[in-house]
Amino acid sequence: MKGNFNIERAEKFAHRVRWHIVETVIRHGEGHAGPSLSCTDILATLYNGVMKYDPQNPKWEDRDRLLVSGGHKCLGLYGTLVEAGFFDESVLNEYNKLNSRVPAHPDMKKLPGIDFSTGSLGHGLPLACGMALAAKKNKKDYRVFVIMGDGEQGEGSVWESASYAAAKGLDNIVGILDRNGLQINGTNAEVCNTAPLEERYKAFGWDVVIVDGHDVGEIQNALQSAPVNKGKPTMVICNTIKSKGMPFAEGSVKYHHWHPGKEEANMAVQALRDYQKERWGE
Q1: Is 2 a domain residue?
Q2: What CATH number has the domain bearing residue 268?
Q3: pTM of the entire structure?
C-alpha cells in the first residue's frame, strides 16, 4: 500500500496503535510501553502512504523494507501491523507467552510483515546496509527504512554501518532516529552521550533532516523527500517524547518498561479516551 497521505487518517491510525500498546501491557502485566509509544507516530506515517507494502502478499519482492532495530519496541510494531491488516488484533492476546507468535522481540518466522528479527541493539543499520546493497545490485527500487533509538547510537556497529552506507552511496536507506533522550537506566547524556547526532551523521556523509516526531505531516514530508541528494543516505531525526500518550508517564525513565498497577492502568486508559474525545469527538 502506497497512496495519498492523509494527516487525520494517520493520526487516528497512531491512536489506535497506542490503544493496542496500552491494552496489551495492561493485559500482560508488563511491557516496553515507553519506547513503543515514542515511535508510534513514526510507524503510523510509514504505513499510511509512505511505504510500499501489501498485507495480502507480505513477501512481495518490490515492497519497501522496515527494520525496527530496537526490538523491545515491538508492541508498537505489532499494533501497527494489526492496523495495516497483516493479522488480527486477537493475536496480541498471545503477547510474550510460551511459544507465542508475538514474543517480547519480533520474530520474522512467526508473523507476516516482519522483515527481520531484531533485539540486540546496533544490528538494524548493518542489516539495512545489506538489504539496500542487494536492491542496488538487483536493480530494485525499494527503499529500506530503519528505526533506531538515540540510546542505540552508543553501539559501535551503528557507526561502522553509517560509514559503509555513505561510502557505498546507499541512498535507498532512510534512517529514522527516535530521539526521546532516554534509555532504560537514565538519560542518554548520563549513560553514554552521543550528541551532537546531527553533526556526527553529516560528518559520516549522510544528509540529515530534523522533525517533530509526533507531527505526522512533518514526518511524512521528510520521509517522502528522501533521498535528499542522490548518492547519499538520509537520516531523519525525530524529536520524540517517551511514553507519548500517557501524560503521567511522558518523559520519565520509570516507564521504559512498565508494570502497570490498577491506578496507573486506569489513568492510561482514561488519557487515551480523553484525547480521542477532545481530538475527534469520538
Answers
A1: no
A2: 3.40.50.970
A3: 0.97
